[in-house]
Write the structure tokens for this entry.
Amino acid sequence: MNIYLTFDVEQDLHSEKYVSLQRGIPLLLGLLNKYNILATFFVPAKLLNKFPNYFLNLEKQGHEIALHGLEHERFDNLPLIEKEKRIKESVKIYKTIFNKNPAGFRAPQHSIDEETLKILEKNNFLYDASYTPFNILQFLFFPRRFLLFIHGFFSSRKIKKIKKTMGYHTLKGAVCKAPCFLDDPKLKTVRLTPHSKESGFQFMDINKNFYEVPTSSFLIPFVSLPLRIFPWILLKVYLNILKLTHKNLVFYAHSWDFIELPKSKIDRYFNYRRLLNNLDKTIFYLYKGNNFLTINDLVKNENS
């Protein structure tokens, strides 16, 4: 079984501050380093732009940085033109910082829709991780989004290929009279077409796909909440149910889950230290015989 730990990085809950960057994420990284685990962090583009060196350092440690909107906006509320504008601006910021295209996207508050998925494909994303199927809590937290809840609740719980897409790259120094074909063990069949006599050729990888990577759930999603409120004996039962009903597991929490939240009733009764302790126990319980990967690892393996 593959297990993917994912974390949404954003403003602290009930605050406009980013205390979690200085206090929460370092606690989380200490735990991940204890088990030599890499994770996927979903970050709004404007937050990347605000603290570029912080997230470059995370990436240098081997963690994946993916996008979480432009400024943590709901995408189901936006007109098509605005969705396209914001995603393109997000990609531009990401590429300026990391010098590459982002692989993944997660819409804030599960606000994904078909229009947004098509825009992601168009902009060469490799996966979306916005859905949390079979999740009753989504309706409790967002009761006015009933149609979105219904669509998400009955969506597939499997990591699935949505559509075969085509990615474009530059192959420098290629010598080939077009049209021609190159057999590459990594890319399988690649078609080459002339790009420039001086700089080489442009090639099209016909083996890339676009994936939906949903958060695991069995009525209650595999997120920070059950790790906060369940005693360990009940949490083990919950984990075993997830293992029986899923081929792979996707967990997510927020950056502010790992700091004290004075205005949060949940944190008052089930604080972040309890969450960290149960996350430690959860990783230890799942560690033997399973693989902890970033989501981009999954995509690269599927496209290899």
About this structure: Confidence is low (pLDDT under 50) at residues 165-206. The chain has two domains: 2-159+213-303, 165-208. The longest helix spans residues 80-98. The longest strand covers residues 160-172.
